[in-house]
């Protein structure tokens, strides 16, 4: 991890995309890109790996389904199999249709909420969390690329200005 | 690029038709022609199984049809009525096999037509590249529709016993059908069928004409006109499709009714249609004829297959669960007869049409893999054949059902006819629309 970083600021997402491709082609490591909105294809251009959050959602859904089945099997069939309006509480399968709405909803509930919580945890987002914003303009209309400096400061600066950066500054990391 | 109907496929489809026709004819020839023959057949079948359970089966039959007047009469009368009943069911079997297959393949092209109209009315940017394929599949609409229509006319003319309400002898003793005779009478039934078919075929004809004219013209007036008639068609389609499902399927059980039946049949035909588009597209692409169709187009089609499969299941379950939960006898008989005698096809189709596509097509990567889509597609199509089978057979042949020679013959014959007509139509025009305003977007489509 470099102790110094370069911040290059752009004011157009197309220019940013080209800059990202160029910087990567020159084999510099992009530490982070800050954008005010999702830029389509940026993750591919940066070479980020795919998210696995859909897989977690599937597993959470399976968990929700299991919870629903276990819960209702215990309550309705095993613990107190009452005759309620003639519904067949002899086995889970016989009364299954009545449980399906709950099975469905709990599957969706678990999949959705646990996935969102996973997202918060993985992206380190919570209330009172201090914003990690290197430049306030990136929330409005500017794009910022952060690159580690490994003793090639002048050359890197030149490269970034060539790619159309409107502003290039060198900063101490965690300053 | 122009598709040429290869000789191999042409001969293959003709072989399918010939083999299918032979099987169907066998079905008609081997159907019993008299009550005595039917009795002999049943007895022979029971002997094959050791004859032990004959009595049990007979008893079940009497139970399910206990609503008939036979109960009041003495034993001999009851037996005679029962034999007559079984005889009709056995006679119905080749007719039902013919009807189920004819309707199934017709419903595929009608589903594609609805999908096509939706794509036009929604001005979807991804699909114009597939319009010629959809138009090719809907070429089956007119011949397939006419075949179904002919079977319907034969039914109301008493050449078969498919629709019990069409038999004046039955209606005479049946107050419930009498009450519905204002709607369910042969003349009105045939007039309705003619109107439905005329409307659908007319839309298909004009939309195809405008679609081809758009390629030759130098403005977009044909495209706009096509947009307008597609929107109008969808309104017409929604009403007529719903009524068609009451007429052509629900009236097999004239004592039973369900309000969401039209939607249910629609979902079935819609998913079968989309699946067929995907299969034909993948086939033509594998021949190198659709270089610009990329895996994002396949991905979108597979997404539709996935989504509509779940929509179908939602409707299937809603219909089943509402009736199961309330368990009102006049509604529940529909499911009782199916669960009692059609357990495997009835629940098996749920696995084929829901669980299988759900698990296989959930992954975004799998939706781009051709052989995954083809495999799932074939299973979905078979599942929806079974769906139509389950809707028709219990009312016409009851517990005397098999998936045997006449049924397979029906599938083979209509599959051959379908392939022949569809691929013949595909070979008539270029596979790529030339100057559809959205074609460039469709070419570049990437998801």
TrEMBL record, chain A:
Keywords assigned: Membrane, Transmembrane, Transmembrane helix
Domain of life: Bacteria
Keyword Ribosomal protein: no
Chain ranges passing through the membrane: 53-76, 96-121
Matching InterPro entries: ActD (IPR021776)
This protein's name: Quinol:cytochrome C oxidoreductase
Organism in which the protein naturally occurs: Croceivirga radicis
TrEMBL record, chain B:
Annotated keywords: Membrane, Transmembrane, Transmembrane helix
Domain of life, per lineage: Bacteria
Membrane in keyword set: yes
Transmembrane parts of this sequence: 12-31, 97-118, 139-163, 183-206, 227-249, 261-284, 304-324, 344-362, 369-388, 408-426
Name of this chain's protein: Quinol:cytochrome C oxidoreductase
Organism field: Croceivirga radicis
